[in-house]
Amino acid sequence: MAEQILILDFGSQYTQLIARRVRELNVYCEIHPFNKIPEITSEIKGIILSGSPCSVRDEGAPDLDLDSLRGKLPILGVCYGSQLLALKYGGEVLPSEIREYGRANLSHIDTHYDLMKEMTHGSQVWMSHGDTIKELPKGFEVIASTSSVRVAAFKIEGEDTYGIQFHPEVTHTSEGKNLLRNFVVQICGCAQDWTSDVFIDATIADLKAKIGTDKVVMGLSGGVDSSVAATLIHRAIGENLTCVFVDNGLLRKNEFEEVLDSYKHMGLNVIGVDVKQQFYDALEGLTEPESKRKAIGRVFIEIFDEEAHKIPGVKWLGQGTIYPDVIESVSINGPSATIKSHHNVGGLPDFMKLSVVEPLNTLFKDEVREVGRALEIPETIIGRHPFPGPGLAIRILGDITAEKVKTLQEVDHIFIQGLKDHGLYDEVWQAGAILLPIHSVGVMGDERTYEKVVALRAVGSVDGMTADWIHLPYEFLGKMSNEIINRVKGVNRVVYDISSKPPATIEWE
Ligand SMILES: Nc1ncnc2c1ncn2[C@@H]1O[C@H](COP(=O)(O)OP(=O)(O)OP(=O)(O)O)[C@@H](O)[C@H]1O
Ligand SMILES: O=c1[nH]c(=O)c2[nH+]cn([C@@H]3O[C@H](COP(=O)(O)O)[C@@H](O)[C@H]3O)c2[nH]1
Ligand SMILES: NC(=O)CC[C@H](N)C(=O)O
Ligand SMILES: [Mg+2]
Where is the active site (predicted)? Predict the structure, then answer.
């Protein structure tokens, strides 16, 4: 892989944003936990120390061996990272009188320093801290201040080590991108040549070297991630790739046929397997969300294993795993709390004697889409809303039956088609319908009804990590409600989900 910036994570909610901003500068970067620092190879051009929910004054606060890094390559400490630098070398960090959260303005900037080049007086910055650097160690110079924070930025004399109290990665810091560019390009000397094309060439070469003449079997879902991953593997090894598209009985209306058809035009070798009943049997009677997810994950693996055995010489299982899936499973204190078990993360069971190949496990969703477009994958696939592997099973609250799936497929179809017909589909990052396990009373044609409730959900997001509900036009929502209640038997009430993530999640289970 090309030159890169290493981001050491102390657990800040903004660490992923730092990575995104650096990549937007066409510079590759990776996030690693502060206590699992990788080998510092010559490809690493600089280090960013992230913020943290911890205080440097806490007993057992996250710490690392800065002596082994300082002076060897450029370092930028952000918030906690800067406080750690100050404290460890003899400075003083104290609780600030007021917890500084929100907008502030740089009242003093020393633009002689590379980090501060082209930053303007009064520039808005985003603060989020409870501690403040009262005294800097000897040899540390203040290079920017706000009216209430004297040490808003510092540099260590004679080396490219910097600290900033504010968060350049947050868009509320109006010149944050300029500051990060100063660090990554001026100070670290990165060439800004990391593009989709570079990624594609390097990945194909890497896949060729790794897989050689072995055979690969891969689960293909019609979604963006697996389609892009399969195309990359196909470019690398051609006919030695076999894709398997599983009809788990939890797909959307007509999806199995439509997706198989769209892959025909892409030259991929795709086998469709109809194993609906196997999934329904495994799900029978299960109501608890995690039990449902685990059962689905298990059957998926069984099916892939069966299919792999049908192809002589298969050594690899291809997966469409992307970077957020990986980050979520390696937090700084070991694996983070399991919020939802994604069925494709966590390794394969022992009985599967296959190695895993995941060409997209360093990319964010929007980057995957960019790569897909560069590979000229049809927009009908690249522009698709994400759809979870466990499918409608996590949108049917309670137990799963074929009849409930049928009902939800009809509702989902009306909603998604409605979004397309009204030019709203591309305004929305992901949308779907949820079948609730409750009945409510209605009246239809003078008759009392006692039928099911569905919820509609449409969110905006960049990478699914955070999301906001979309303000769909009332007229549109009204129309959808009418159509659903009139056309789908057994549904007499429609509600719209107005929760953002966090504190809710996109899927209900
Ligand atoms: N119906 C399916 N048949 C075969 N493999 C599947 C199926 N559903 C999911 N998978 C596998 O599980 C992986 C994870 O699914 P996930 O939904 O996260 O990604 P995706 O479907 O490729 O993309 P998207 O997030 O855009 O839907 C996929 O990359 C694919 O390898
Ligand atoms: O392939 C998948 N397997 C899963 O188990 C899974 N769970 C959630 N999702 C998708 O991930 C994104 C974030 O979802 P949540 O906010 O519900 O966690 C949303 O895009 C969800 O649709 C999944 N995708
Ligand atoms: N955002 C941060 O890194 C905050 C650092 C530390 N927890 C503080 O409150 O000052
Ligand atoms: Mg999917």
Answer: 79 (nucleophile), 167, 169
